[in-house]
Amino acid sequence: MDDRKNIKMVLNIALLLVICIILWWGQQNLSAFYIRILNLSAVFVILGISMNLVLGFTGMFSLGHSGFMCIGAYVAAILTMSPASKEIIYFMEPITPVLANVQWPIFPAIVAAGVVSAIFGFLIGIPALRLRDDYLAIATLGFAEIIRIVVTNTITITNGALGLKNIPSVKSLWVYWGIAIITVIILKRIINSNWGYAFKAIRDNEIAAEAMGISIFGHKVLSFTIGAFFAGIAGALMAFLITSVDPTMFRFTFTFQILLIVVLGGMGSLTGSVISAVVITILMEVLRVVEQPMNLLGILQIPGLPGMRMVIFALGLLLVILYYRQGLMGTREFNWDYILDRIDSIRKRGTST
């Protein structure tokens, strides 16, 4: 067992080195457009696995992720914008004096975005998580819309419907994928801890979990708060990627896009969410062609249909729900044990012959 543990540690280090080499190569050789797509993929990886913690591992049908992402984006933007930019952008009403001269570095602002989102997640979770199933989904969806409406109307803090511009730009693959990898590692350790076992027990059977002494409500609030924390971090990264935010970016339809990632990847699989997030983000760009006017063989003229990409993804989600409900990975994870077991079995066959 110790030998296998050492082998897996070496393999993990080797995998991280390979990822670092790929990131270095991509940063040096890829165009700005491709780097932007890969960075966006990292953001959706964080969103997908954080929502999977709540939905797939704890069994709570929550639809409030867009609201927490909105909070994180605005917190990071306000904390990092220069005082000169704030003076120009807040022309309808001046910004609250306390925030006027605040300008934080990027990384502390990202952490602060996660913390503030987690606080809101905790406060929202206390009343909302007493509900279950469809009622919980409706309640969290309502809270997400309330957050967006509050952001629209607090003009002296968020600049209202005009949104924020001139947000510092971060384009490095190292930043986005570094944070995404750290998020995967943290959530993997949480899922494999006593907390994670409690989350899964609550998902499978709340009555049995309560009989075993698990605090159902406490663990639900904990899972919801952790998910909100990472959604806030993803929102901050989105703000630095796009360099502008406004309330219309965080409508409830954005949550359904994250839900699509979770369902297609497999509810209860971090590996599935990572793969699904990357594939869907890339396909979202590739399928832009279906929204443009097309000429098929010089005979059939098809006009551009805005929103056709989401129709295709909605049909894909429908097919998955009907014919492949477990998604890409189901509840399985990438595991070195499977590969090592296969190698051991091949060795045994070789020695036996």
Tell me about this structure.
The structure is a single chain. The protein has 353 residues and is mainly alpha-helical. The chain has two domains: 1-30; 33-251, no CATH class. 73% of the residues lie in helices and 2% in strands. It contains 16 helices and two strands. A two-stranded antiparallel ribbon has the order 1-2. A hairpin with a 3-residue loop joins strand 1 and strand 2 (300-302). Helix 2 (32-57) packs across helix 13, helix 3 packs across helix 12 and helix 10 packs across helix 12. The longest helix has 28 residues, at 2-29. The mean pLDDT is 85.
Beta-strand share of residues? under 5%
Number of domains: 2
Q: Radius of gyration, rounded? A: 22 Å
Count of discrete alpha- or pi-helical segments spanning 4 or more residues: 16
Average pLDDT over all residues: 85
Biggest β-sheet description: 2 strands, antiparallel
Low-confidence stretches: none
Total number of beta strands: 2
First-last Cα distance: 26 Å
Q: How would you classify the helix and strand content by structural class?
A: mainly alpha
Helix and strand element order: HHHHHHHHHHHHHHEEHH
Approximately how much helix is present in the residues? over 70%
Tell me the strand order in the biggest sheet.
Answer: 1-2
Shape: globular
